[in-house]
Amino acid sequence: MIELYGITTCIHCKMAKSLLMKGGRPLREIWLDTLTPEKQEATLARLKELVGPRIGFPVVIEDGRVISIGFKEGELRRSLGLEDEAERLKEVLAKAQEPLGYFFNPDPVVVHELLSGLLENRRRYGYMACPCRLATGDRERDADIICPCRYREADVQEYGRCYCGLYVNEAWKMGKLPTREVPERRPQG
Ligand code: SF4
């Protein structure tokens, strides 16, 4: 049994929940801000015994053993056995793209799904066609949608994120931009 201790307004707690749900293991969620004062106090006392006086949320416990404090995605994935090809690709791409001002979407589940789509397209076509667009399998015809696509720069500049939402700029990542639908720039037909 995995237990997630979090706060309903905490984005890191929500991200941890998405990841834990993906693991498919039985999950018990304890949202401290929804507990009565007595239960909250008792829960905090239990957590302090396990992690010490400085508690950072979320706290994830598996069968009585603390496996993660605060949202440390890599650590959590490793503990859950969710480390995979998509995670390795994420590390490689982050090193290349972050210095250019392109960051991954802060939602790890969205990123994982999109990277898995890119890897699937690479298996199918031999190149990483955009997972949100229909590829032909002809590299030349699909050249504009090989990730990062030709439209990413303009989309990130105007909307803060690419068409799929895999890449975002710093302002979007920090929640300073509204989430607007990104219209398709690719010419049709
Ligand atoms: S929309 Fe995003 S995920 Fe799709 S190809 Fe462009 S940069 Fe990659």
Summarize the SSE layout with pairings.
Layout: E1 2-6, H1 11-23, E2 27-31, H2 37-51, E3 59-62, E4 65-69, H3 73-80, H4 85-97, E5 103-104, H5 108-125, H6 152-159, E6 167-168, H7 170-173
Parallel strand pairs: 1-2
Antiparallel strand pairs: 1-3, 3-4, 5-6
Strand-residue fraction? 5-15%
Approximate helicity band: 40-55%
How large, in whole angstroms, is the Cα Rg? 20 Å
Number of helices: 7
Q: Enumerate the spans where pLDDT stays under 50 for 5 or more consecutive residues.
A: none
Described by strand count, sense and barrel closure, the largest sheet is:
4 strands, mixed
Per CATH, the class of the largest domain reads Alpha Beta
The CATH topology of the largest domain corresponds to Ferredoxin Thioredoxin Reductase
- Mean pLDDT comes to 91
Q: Which compounds are bound in this model?
A: iron/sulfur cluster
